[in-house]
Structure formats: structure tokens, C-alpha cells
Automatic annotation (TrEMBL):
Domain of life of the organism encoding this protein: Eukaryota
Membrane topology: Single-pass membrane protein
Keywords: ATP-binding, Kinase, Leucine-rich repeat, Membrane, Nucleotide-binding, Phosphoprotein, Receptor, Repeat, Serine/threonine-protein kinase, Transferase, Transmembrane, Transmembrane helix
Compartments, as annotated in UniProt: Cell membrane
CDD domains (UniProt xref): STKc_IRAK
Primary subcellular site in the record, as a coarse category: membrane
Signal sequence coordinates: none
Lineage of the organism: Eukaryota, Viridiplantae, Streptophyta, Embryophyta, Tracheophyta
Protein name: Protein kinase domain-containing protein
UniProt organism field: Leersia perrieri
Any one of the GO CC terms: plasma membrane
Matching PROSITE patterns: PROTEIN_KINASE_ATP (PS00107), PROTEIN_KINASE_DOM (PS50011), PROTEIN_KINASE_ST (PS00108)
TM segment ranges: 86-109
Length: 479
């Protein structure tokens, strides 16, 4: 109800039928000259000031207030006053309970999250729609904070995108350094990339859930307007291909023991994707340029831009019209059916093993194009492993472990997926190869001459098949 700031000296106030709302101001009681106050026919509510009622009672004021259904007399408004009190009595305990429940839920979720990272959660008790860690694999227990960066942040981190590390299908890869001094590799999506916003955010969500010591860690991502990027840990020693094919003369030659360890670590990374994630993931582009090395020459699988979850029951992936992968590494069955499986990754890894043994590229160009698989098969017909082994190793290897790795590689690259081992089998067999190599290395690090050129296993060439070259083009992958 409106009250003038300067009270009028008039003794009569006729405010009837003015659609007034709210309560009667206490200040009305201060109008000592007021003799008549007519508030009839309004929408006033609350209590009538006690002073006005007192004056009306002693006949010094003619107070009229009919037809105000919500107006109370004698300061008593049971229906209206009771409700707020009831609301207070109910809402306070309810709010308290809600706060307690929220806090309990928060701590339970936090505890569950920590438990899953430290492999204390039973994988069978978690929803299959989420990615989680299984407690039978080797994990990197470091907790990397998945951060969201702005485009301005990326400009500062990369010094305005000064140093280019490479380029892939997603876009350019830049070197950067975080504020705390951590070096990173930033994959900035190019305008020509066919990956949409929805696919990008889905990929980033998957990557934030995957942590394994042999998978390149994603530190954060950027979705700032049209700019999209993924921020990874920086692998200073580059790709495996740079070390084994001799393309980068600044990289030193790897010993056979180092190659075996890299093979085992890479296999463990793929095994985790296939068996440690629920649902399992297919990498779809396993190759030596997607295996990165850090300063300790520890291997990590990179480039999950093509990784997809597949149906665990059917062990297949939804058919698409786009063939993913790189020539020389593509599974013939996938090439024919357009349906990749975990055995497609096994095939690509088999080619990587042959690269480690031979030091050659997956497709040889001279004197005419031939797959590395077929080239190795031809030369192993006579049972002479030295004819395919990388000469840069100078014969410093255990002949048995070399033969065993070659055999694993050719099984992995069998024409039919049923003849290929699982990555779990590959990990076990590579561990045996590494044990053989460790057994012939003395305390001084020298290879025992007794193990070089002796104990040769005969290879069953009747189990090998000629492998046709897939025909497709694909750009290089960048770390």
C-alpha cells in the first residue's frame, strides 16, 4: 500500500475501491489529524496496525475495511501466519537432509573414482557403458588432471604455435610448455578435418577415462568456439619408425633388447584397449608412427582419433563406408568387409614386429612394390633368419628370440583373423622372447657368442600365406 512521504493534514482519507494490495503501513497510525480512514473494497492483506484498531475502538477514528478478504483483525492471521511457520518447520529439516545426502553422495563418488584408478573396483560391478580399469593390467597410477583450455591458453602454451611437430589427419601438432614447465604436444583440429564437434567431444570424453602406462596420456582439451584441440604429454624421442627405418639420422639405432622391450610395452598398451576397457576399444590404425617413445625409450600407443568401442558380444564393429588405417598395415578382412575387429589391430601390430626385426618399411618400393610380410615370407623359405634381420644390430641378438618374434609377427599377419593370436597371447609370447634375450646377456651387457647363430628353429613355411597389398592412400601420422 502506498503512503505519501509527507502526511496530509486532511482528516478524511477515502482510499476505497482503489485495488490497493499489501499490508497497511504502520505510518498511517502517525496521522494524528486523521478522523476517517476508508479502505473498503481493496485487496489488502496482513494485520491491521494495532494503533489504528485502538483509535477505532476509542471512537477517535472511523476505520472502514470491509471487502478485504485477506485482512486480519486484532493482529491474528492464523491461515497466513501458520503456513510460513509450517513451511519453516518443514523446509529447514528437509534442506538439512538434502545437504547431508549431497555431501554423502559427493564423498562416495569421490571414493569410487579413486578406487577405480587404483584398481580396487570390480570391473563386473560397473556399467558396461563406461570405460574403467581392470585390475589385472599394468597401470600408470599417476593422476593427470584433465583440463579444459581456451584458444588463448594454447597460444600462450605454444608461443603462438611456433614449433610444428608434425601433421596428421586431425591437423597440425604443435610443441608447447605448460605454466609449471611440463612439455606437451597439442593437436589442433584443422578446418579441413572431417571430424565434427560431436565426434570431437565424444573422443575427448573417452580419452579422459583412459590411463595406462603404455598409452599416451591426454592432459586436456580445448573447445573454444570453432577451435578444437587435444593436449597430450610430450614424447621427446619421437616415433618408433624414426628409430628403426633410419629416416631420422639424429636418432640412434636401437638394440634388439630395446626393440623387444618396446614391442612388449606396445603390446601391453593394445592389450589394455582390448581387454582393460569396457566396452573394448579398437585402435584401427596400429603402426610404427603411432608408437611414441619418451626419454627412457618407453613405448606408448598414440593417436586414438580412430579408436572406437565395439560390441563385446559379437567382437565386431559397426560397419562404415570409410576405410581407416594406413597402407601396409590394413587387415585384409577389414579391407574386404569394412568391419574392423580387435584382430585388425593384431594384424597391424604384426607388421610393426616385422619392422622391428628387419628395420624396413611396411611396403618396399624397389625393385617393385611388395609388402614387408611377403618379402619376409620369401626369405624365410630357406630358414635363414639373418637374411631379413636389420644389419644395424650387428648380429647382437639371440637367434632364438629373433626367430620367435618373426613367427609371432607372421601369425599376427595371417590372412584370416581366426588364425591370429589375441594381444593377450602376443604379450605372453613377447615376454618369453625378452626372457630369452635376458638369459644370454651377461652382467657386462655383452651378448654371449654361444647364442648368436645357434639354436635356430626351423620355420614352417607351409603355414604362411602370400599377402596382397591393399590399395588406398593415407597421410602420415604425427606424434
Amino acid at each position: 500500500m502506498y503512503l505519501p512521504s509527507q502526511p496530509s493534514k486532511s482528516s478524511i482519507r477515502n482510499l476505497s475501491y482503489n485495488n490497493l494490495t499489501g499490508s497497511i503501513p504502520e505510518a498511517m497510525s502517525q496521522l494524528s489529524s486523521l478522523t476517517v480512514l476508508d479502505l473498503t473494497g481493496n485487496q489488502l492483506s496482513g494485520s491491521i496496525p494495532s494503533e489504528l484498531l485502538k483509535r477505532a475502538h476509542d471512537k477517535s477514528l472511523d476505520l472502514r475495511y470491509d471487502n478485504n478478504p485477506d485482512l486480519c483483525i486484532n493482529g491474528s492471521c492464523p491461515p497466513q501466519n501458520g503456513k510460513p511457520k509450517l513451511v519453516v518447520y518443514i523446509s529447514v529439516p528437509v534442506a538439512t537432509v538434502i545437504v547431508i545426502l549431497v555431501l554423502v553422495l559427493f564423498f562416495l563418488l569421490r571414493r569410487k573414482h579413486k578406487g577405480s584408478v587404483h584398481n580396487t573396483v570390480n570391473a563386473h560391478n560397473e556399467p558396461t557403458s563406461q570405460l574403467h580399469r581392470s585390475d589385472s593390467y599394468g597401470y600408470d597410477t599417476r593422476q593427470l588432471e584433465n583440463r579444459r583450455f581456451t584458444y588463448k591458453d594454447l597460444q600462450m602454451i605454444t608461443n603462438n604455435f611456433q614449433q610444428v611437430l608434425g601433421k596428421g589427419g586431425f591437423g597440425y601438432v604443435y610443441y608447447g610448455v605448460l605454466e609449471e614447465g611440463t612439455p606437451v604436444a597439442i593437436k589442433l583440429r584443422s578446418q579441413s578435418s572431417n571430424q565434427g564437434v560431436k565426434e570431437f567431444l565424444g573422443e575427448a570424453q573417452i580419452l579422459t577415462r583412459i590411463h595406462h602406462k603404455n598409452l599416451v596420456c591426454m592432459i586436456g582439451y580445448c573447445k573454444d568456439g570453432e577451435y578444437m584441440a587435444l593436449v597430450y604429454e610430450y614424447m621427446s624421442e619421437g616415433t618408433l619408425q624414426e628409430h628403426i627405418t633410419g629416416g631420422d639420422h639424429n636418432r640412434r639405432n636401437l638394440t634388439w633388447r630395446e626393440r623387444l622391450r618396446i614391442a612388449l610395452e606396445s603390446a601391453q598398451g593394445l592389450e589394455y584397449l582390448h581387454r582393460g576397457c569396457s566396452p573394448p576399444l579398437i585402435h584401427r590404425d596400429v603402426k610404427s608412427t603411432n608408437i611414441l617413445l619418451n626419454t627412457k625409450l618407453e613405448a606408448k600407443i598414440a593417436d586414438f582419433g580412430l579408436s572406437k568401442a565395439f560390441n563385446h558380444d559379437s567382437d565386431t564393429h559397426i560397419s562404415t563406408n570409410i576405410l581407416a588405417g594406413t597402407p601396409g598395415y590394413i587387415d585384409p578382412e577389414y579391407h574386404a568387409t569394412m568391419m574392423p575387429t580387435t584382430k585388425s589391430d593384431v594384424y597391424g601390430f604384426g607388421v610393426v614386429l616385422l619392422e622391428l626385426v628387419t628395420g624396413k618399411s611396411p611396403i618396399l618400393r624397389a625393385p617393385e612394390p611388395i609388402s614387408l610380410i611377403h618379402w619376409v615370407q620369401q626369405r624365410l623359405t630357406c630358414g635363414n633368419i639373418e637374411s631379413v634381420v636389420d644389419v644395424r644390430m650387428n648380429g647382437a641378438y639371440n637367434i632364438n628370440s629373433i626367430w620367435k618374434v618373426a613367427e609371432i609377427a607372421l601369425k599376427c599377419t595371417s590372412q584370416t583373423s581366426k588364425q591370429r593370436p589375441t594381444m593377450n597371447d602376443v604379450v605372453s609370447q613377447l615376454q618369453e622372447c625378452l626372457d630369452l634375450e635376458h638369459g644370454c646377456v651377461g652382467s657386462d651387457g655383452e651378448i654371449s657368442i654361444d647364442h648368436v647363430g645357434k639354436g635356430r628353429e626351423l620355420f614352417k613355411m607351409d603355414q604362411l600365406e602370400r599377402v596382397p597389398l591393399p590399395t588406398m592412400s593415407s597421410g602420415p601420422s604425427a606424434r
